[in-house]
Request: fold
Amino acid sequence: MELSKNYIPASAEDKWNQRWKEKQYFKSTPDERKPFTVVIPPPNVTGVLHMGHTLNETVQDILVRRARMSGYNACWVPGSDHASIATEAKVVGMLKEKGVDKNTLTREAFLKYAFEWKEKYGGIIYHQIEKLGCSVDWSRVTFTMDPDYYKAVMKVFVDLYDKGLIYRGARMINWDPSAKTALSDEEVEYRDIQGKLYHIRYELKDARGNAISNPQTGEKGIVIATQRPETIMGDTAICVNPDDERYAHLKNAFAYVPLINRKIPIIFDAYVDPAFGTGALKVTPAHDINDYNLGLKHNLEVVDTLNEDGTLSEAAQIYIGEDRFTARKKIITELTEKGAIVKEEEYTTRLGYSQRTGVVVEPRISTQWFLKMKELAAPALKAVVEGDIKIHPGDKFLATYKYWLENVKDWCISRQLWWGQQIPAWYDDKGNIIVAENKDAAFEKWQSLQGTTTGNIDELKQDEDVLDTWFSSWLWPMEVFKGISNPGNKDINYYYPTSVLVTGQDIIFFWVARMVMAGMEYNKEKPPAEAIPFKDVYFTGMVRDKLGRKMSKSLGNSPDLLQLIEAYGADAVRFGIMISSPAGNDLLFDTASLEQGKFFNNKLWNALKLVKSLQQRIADTKSEEDSFAVEWFESRLNEAKTIVEKLISEFRLSEALKTIYSLIWDDFCSWYLEWIKPEQDQPLAQSVYNKTVEFFTELLQLLHPFMPFITEELYHLLDEERTDDICVKQYTAAGEINPSYIAEGELLKQTITALRDAKVKNQLKPRDEIRVYIQTNIPETYQRIIPILSRQVKASAVHVTNEAIQDCINIVVGKDRFYVQSDIVVDSSAQKEQLQKDLEYQKGFLNSVEKKLSNERFVQNAKPEVVEMERKKKADAEAKIKAIEESLMHL
Reply:
């Protein structure tokens, strides 16, 4: 078969994706093997894979493919999340473009549109996952609104309610005016911004209606500092500290809210800091949590001046229907015109933004459903602290996990939306609440409570709200195997707990900690090590552009995955994102790393073409130099396999890829293939060719989890009679590592490089013949490598000697000196200049090592092996300096 000039990714990717699916390699069912289970962090059903997802899915696929090739029954469950707020916003937007207002629809009609949207766009992300080469079990695709999943969520809600962990009540919550729904505390992002503090004068009167002035200064009224003038219409008191003498004269006094002239009392409470602002606080119970608590304490009226969409309500009395920020500007203008604003000042503050829509969040008193978290958090914290779950990298994220769980608050789980799992609570005409998994069960409960067997089921009205999306996804590791809806089934018993969770650091509490809570709660009968939802958690870093900015749609700096795959190939994209992804740390994404992946593809392709060309030169022959090359690479391969195994077990995947990359590019392609390649018209031993195919195959296996398509393609092209596939070919354990072979190989590489450099520096052409003399105290070191050395540097002869040779090119390799003779006259001054540079470098290096070793603190505190390494560096540098100085003496 004639190979194309370069590797063409598209045809290979389509071919192997189709083959893998036809063979059902990634379909998993319980058997006698040990399971390796991964559940995909479910992306939003209407989303697309951004670069963070790409990194996440690639990491998972590497782990899953490697486990499958190591004899595990690998099961990777794909799926998506219904994403209540995001999806509803998209459906509402789509309807608006059609001229349809959501508010004119019934709930059933809206949900029909929502499911149509999901069917139309929900498959996009699965297509991208497949194009990336992810080896998921497509027979297990799960969606958080699937019927069984929906039932599982209902079952858990009822159970937690019956246990007294879920309750309903009016609380100050975070409100998203754009999505018009409540948010949990964790869905609010706080940003430091530069705002303004407005000092506003309120008129004061005593109980008889007489104006009050400050007896010390004569100043009229009282000045309040606020950042939010648009909320003053909701003021129901002004509060001062009882120990603040400036306001002692205000007992039994009243203030009047500017613009609307509402009469409000002056109250006294130690909560107020006399040193902040003017020492007087306007109390707006409907719009601030602290004010709300003050209002409860002092029995204040609650006046909510904002509608659910962030416009001013009728209770505001002015600018009704205006957006809150538009109203703010108009109110400031009017207050200024009326002389009520005393001054404005710049002020740095923290403002909460909705993670879902990006708008400024409003505190709002609302009746919502809450889940008590402290009782659930304790076992989840213990599972990690005691090591049942291991976090990677633990030194970075364990503290974050502990902080969240040690400071956990009750979770607001209701959302004012239609898309999602509707809360399973029903109300009768008297306001009684009946919580049950479905309407029929609720009616039976209601009849039991009423002591009757009659009644009209249609008189029970279900709660309009849906549950927070995270309330469904916290069941993910269990319910993808029907562990809640069908407990004790063979899948949940076999696959749970899952092996590893790969996810982003930004959802440690949103999702990771809550999954641990749910797992511990619904597997109480099991020991902790079996109740946990996963054994390891690997947190990937944040993907940033090369300027260090987080990739986002708003900045327009996040590339389209499918376009990248089209331009570079899926393997190159996977390579590019992994090679620049240190464990747990943010990575700077640059298409240069994808170019590197593309070059690597072609390096592999050219290596294949070279090996295939050697097939034509096979003969029944054997040489010592071929034997050395094979023995060296076999040890080097086994060494790399051992290193890669350790790195992957520690989730240091980027380092593992770099190890494989170097092994293939440098050791195999640049050195081994060159060392075994016979001279023109010379044969290659059959045994060497066979070993070369064997080595190439093992390299493709090592690389396969990282770059699945090209490795599968090359595996079959390397031996066209193969009928199996590399994706399920089992690894062989690392064999014996011979340190002396590896040392000889390194010496050979260093020597070839040094001699080639010397030829270039002395203006000799690569093909110009030379004679080499090696001055060494250990001549046997070079015995096995001389034949390859001669061929690689075009040496007509290589001699080992104890003496210095005059009138030669002098070079130093390690502790030995090399003398190079050529029939072409060379300039000794250039040699001398280079040796002087080398000598200066070695002396500087020796000085830095000696400084380190003279530091008593370093010697006492560093590990013994580190100190020993520095001492070895010192000895090597001294030997090199001696050899260079002797070489200079002979020039």
Q: What stands out?
A: The chain has a mean pLDDT of 91. The two ends are 56 Å apart (CA to CA). The first helix runs from residue 9 to 23.
